[in-house]
Design a protein that fits this description.
13% of the residues lie in helices and 51% in strands. It is built from five helices and 25 strands. The strands form seven sheets. Strands 10, 18, 20, 21, 23 and 24 form a six-stranded mixed beta sheet that branches. Strands 4-1-3-6 form a four-stranded mixed beta sheet. The protein has a four-stranded mixed beta sheet with strand order 13-8-12-16.
């Protein structure tokens, strides 16, 4: 047993000290992009990288599931339409730790198609993932500075971009305004440039309070009848409104309707009420009644 243990330990030490070639998949990040040439990559945005390392580092690499990205220098595209990885091995090796040695990349050559370059401005949108303290919520439009950015790239790519999004703004149990600086994403378009790359974001957050508003019921598709009357003639809306705008909202800012279309064929005895107009940053909590009786004179 002692001999077996010694043999196993000796074998293990030899195994982890040997050098092995290990292949990893990496995403491509372009750097030193030519300013006056717009391009389309003609291959996938991932490559296979062959790395030589010791058995111990191979084991550690297998245990970690981190996504690897490798930068590719595109300064050579000023005079040609391809880049060769074997000419950038030194540059790529500097992106890895000293115990890892890059010996090759597949495919070794990246080809690009050049087209006319276009510039335009597009608006910014800010996605959010925010939870609030009780009785708090959004109380105004998100403000950005700047609210638009300039994008430059191939005409066919730039014209298809209607807007760009920032990184998602996250928060938990928020009760005050959010002020931050957010990066602007490229929509996975590696061959476009954005200016500026960041924007200042202000998201108004405030206290909400409950308000009850009586809204007259409007009748649609009832013009072919002499008269139509609902019972009751109004509905009561319970809404959450920003405290600072409590007196601002009145019945004229809301709309409740009942629809008489096809009621005769369906033989319904009551009509559902639908809320078709609700101010921004106002939340509907309760509607009473949800159905109303009606009288029709033909």
């Amino acid at each position: 047993m002692r001999c077996l243990i010694i043999s196993f330990v000796a074998w293990l030490l030899i195994a982890v000290s040997n050098q092995y070639t290990f292949t990893i998949k990496a995403g491509i990040q372009y750097v030193n992009i030519p300013e006056k040439r717009a391009f389309h990559p003609l291959q996938s945005d991932t490559v296979n990288i062959r790395i030589k390392m010791s058995g111990w580092h191979v084991l550690m690499s297998q245990l970690r599931s981190d996504t690897t990205n490798v930068q590719v220098d595109l300064s050579g595209l000023n005079t040609k339409n391809f880049v060769v990885f074997s000419n950038q091995i030194g540059f790529i090796n500097r992106q890895f730790s000293s115990e890892k040695k890059v010996i090759g990349v597949s495919p070794d050559t990246l080809y690009f198609d050049f087209s006319r370059q276009t510039q335009r401005k597009v608006p910014i949108k800010v996605p959010t993932s925010i939870t609030f303290k009780k009785q708090f919520g959004f109380v105004g439009d998100t403000k950005m500075n700047p609210s638009m950015v300039t994008i430059t790239g191939p005409t066919e790519d730039v014209t298809n971009i209607e807007y760009l999004e920032t990184d998602t703004i996250k928060g938990d149990m928020v009760f005050t305004d959010i002020r931050t600086v957010a990066n602007i994403n490229k929509h996975n378009k590696t061959n476009i440039t954005i200016y500026p790359r960041m924007t200042e974001v202000v998201i108004p957050v405030g206290e909400l309070t409950e308000k009850i508003i009586e809204v007259p019921i409007k009748i649609t598709n009832g013009t072919r009848y002499t008269s139509v009357r609902t019972v009751p003639s109004k509905v009561s809306l319970t809404v959450m409104v920003p405290l600072k705008d409590y007196v601002k909202w009145t019945a004229s800012d809301f709309e409740a309707i009942v629809d008489l279309e096809n009621w005769d064929e369906r033989h319904v005895k009551s009509l559902p009420v639908r809320i078709t107009k609700l101010p921004d940053f106002v939340q509907l909590i309760k509607l009473e009644p949800q159905n109303v009786d009606f009288f029709v004179r033909k």
